[in-house]
Amino acid sequence: MAPTESENEEATDSPRESLLEYIQDHPGVYFSDLLRETDLARGQLSYHLRVLQEDDQILSVSRGGHKHFFPFNEFSQPAQVVLSVLTLDTPREILLLIYEEPGATRGHIAGAVGTTRQNVAWHLDRLVDAGLVHADKDGRAYHYYPDVDPELVRRLLETYHPSLWRTWSERLADTFDRMGTN
């Protein structure tokens, strides 16, 4: 017996619904992660993402060479920027380190994160452009400070990246408390 039209629509919508649910649970997820986390081929994933965008169920934002996906109209622009950074290992580590150690220099950040100064410089430029941190020059050294509300970062980490929150919470709790009382 051939499937009815509504059964065909359900079958067609099933990967899309799963994709939408994944994006709702992981806002800021980028294309490569979606490809890894779904059973969809690249073309199928692109198609379903395009349909979800056309239906105003999701939106995509390009940052730092990655296209990030969010549920439509659920996050402010600052929250989108923070979530975009939290999905990427190196920029996330740099941002959280700057919260933990305001005034850190590129050299210190490179050593703490375990990457090169050039890589840190590249990511810091993007974090500055995104309005998440700012640099103060002191002689030849630049010192980096957070520019986004620590409560927003804490809330997004705790809600959408709970394993990261557990890892960083003890380290950052005192820092966020100090920043909130200033």
From TrEMBL:
Q: Name one GO molecular function term.
A: DNA-binding transcription factor activity
Q: Which domain of life is it from?
A: Archaea
Start and end residues of each HTH arsR-type domain: 81-161
Fetch the InterPro entries from UniProt: ArsR-like_HTH (IPR011991), HTH_ArsR_DNA-bd_dom (IPR001845), HTH_HVO_0163_N (IPR056504), WH-like_DNA-bd_sf (IPR036388), WH_DNA-bd_sf (IPR036390)
Q: Which Gene3D superfamilies match?
A: Winged helix-like DNA-binding domain superfamily/Winged helix DNA-binding domain
Q: Which Pfam family is one of this chain's hits?
A: HTH_24
This protein is called what? HTH arsR-type domain-containing protein
